[in-house]
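Milestone 3.1: sequence recovery, worked example.
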């Protein structure tokens, strides 16, 4: 039986404590705190989909921070963000390749009958649940725009 994400986080946190991996432990604790906050906000325990949503949000925040740190030429903070993203990636589903993503975009455009950029919202609304957690929204948006033009 495979562990759910929250159980894996708990086990990995214990392992990081035992092996004294301070940086890894810090990332796992911050993710667990974000999940706990979301659980409190929801008033119930989180489903796997909700956990993935929180993990994706955490990853997106780190990507944005990494970009900002690169612009500010802060190598030390860039390295820290890259490490945190690496740890987070362990808990996210594997990302779709460009070819797989393009196939999903083409299939969805055909399903929705969209023919112009004016119908992009309809296509994006249909695609995002299919690729939840497995593709970056901006990448999906670019492929949809390219396909509809």
């Amino acid at each position: 039986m495979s562990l759910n994400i929250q159980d894996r986080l708990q086990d990995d946190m214990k392992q990081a404590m035992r092996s004294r991996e301070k940086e890894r432990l810090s990332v796992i604790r911050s993710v667990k705190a974000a999940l706990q906050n979301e659980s409190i906000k929801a008033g119930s325990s989180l489903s796997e989909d909700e956990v993935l949503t929180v993990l994706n949000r955490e990853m997106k925040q780190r990507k944005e921070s990494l970009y900002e740190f690169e612009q500010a030429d802060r190598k030390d903070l860039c390295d820290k963000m890259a490490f945190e993203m690496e740890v987070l990636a362990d808990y996210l589903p594997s990302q779709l390749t460009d070819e797989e993503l393009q196939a999903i975009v083409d299939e969805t455009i055909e399903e929705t009958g969209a023919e112009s950029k004016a119908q992009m919202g309809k296509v994006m609304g249909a695609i995002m649940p299919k690729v939840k957690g497995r593709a970056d929204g901006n990448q999906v948006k670019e492929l949809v725009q390219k396909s509809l033009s």
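The domain at 5-89 is CATH 1.10.1510.10 (Hypothetical Protein Yqey; Chain: A; domain1). DSSP finds seven helices and no strands in the chain.
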